[in-house]
Amino acid sequence: MFTPEIIIDTLADNVRKTGNPFGLKKASLNTWWKDSSLTPDGSTLLFTGLMYQLVPYIKATTKYLEKYEDTPKADYIRYGKLVPKSITNMGLNFISSKEDKTSFNTILGNIARILQSSGVSFAYKPDLDEYSGVLLYDLGDQESFIKHAKYVAKKLQDAGIRKLITVDPHTTYAVKVLYPKYTGISFEVQTYFELANLKGEGNSEEITLHDPCFYGRYLKLSDVPQNLLTNLGVSCTKLNTSGPFTSCCGGPAESMSPKLAEEVGKRRVEELAINGKKIVSMCPICLANLQKSGAEVDDLSSLLVQFV
Amino acid sequence: MTRITPDFAKELKQYGDDTALICFNCGTCVAVCPLISESFPRRLIRYIQIGARDRILENSNDLYKCLHCGLCTETCPRGADPGEVILSLKRFAVATWRKM
Lengths: 308, 100
What we know:
The complex is a heterodimer of chains A (308) and B (100). Chain A has 308 residues and is of the alpha/beta class. Chain A is built from 14 helices and 7 strands.
């Protein structure tokens, strides 16, 4: 395990200086929209919260961090704060996989296509799409979280945004539950799959759906993707550990202990592999950690986009 | 030897939910916690109840293993919200480090 104080201070410093926990320049982090034809006009905003975009960097960073966990070199991370962000940006872009970036960008492109095909009217403005700050909240850095959340919420409010369409459970929880409580600013928030209106008949495929903790327990949304898939002719394996009793993928431990994240992830993979069906996730953190723990996992959007 | 801070539960209120004293230490949270480590989160909640403030700071690394998955809160028979209590302790630990 890494020293929590050092990790939290590093992440908070990055968010303060660049708006995201990895200290990346937004221009190099958020590029998925360049291949899509999306309108920037409207008060309903597709708000990715940059989570899918961050995953290739999380994967690359933890691959390096794993080597130093529980070694005397682990505390050298504290000096990361002293490295200019331009160097950090260059280094992280160099070590992160181009294939991963393409894959996670494709997921976001698919989500936009699902919304368009469902007749949902929405805008996308890259300059308004910000990281929510939710990791700082989860780690207990309340002061840094509130400061960042207020900045993001006010920026959206000033731009006339009233409704947010979200794509991952952590950002959804942040903007739906935490922002009204800690910033005093509320938006109407819905996930893309709540708005998906797709038609078609599947090939009676059965899949195993992994419910993320924040959709299953905190937001009670597990029924929505399940019903959506059932209506499309895709059935979902019945698991005891689903909905409010879903098991964690281990991903949230990634920043403090990649070893622990993988250990918890492997246990979840065993539960999900019960009948050998395709495993489907709807959270970028779950997707990456379950893959890292040895499972083949698809994102929900890559299944839904087949019905567009 | 552990120093006891009798008003610690009151001090903790500024960091979040005030539910630690409701816990009757049944251990359901320990049984469901994916960490499978020594009596987590019950042990830390017990420290709040007895005012073992320093012991919590000594064991603060354990707090950051918590995945904030919420399964303990979902299954707690007392509604003591162990997940949120742990989050309050994380906030307490961060605020304490920053005051040092």
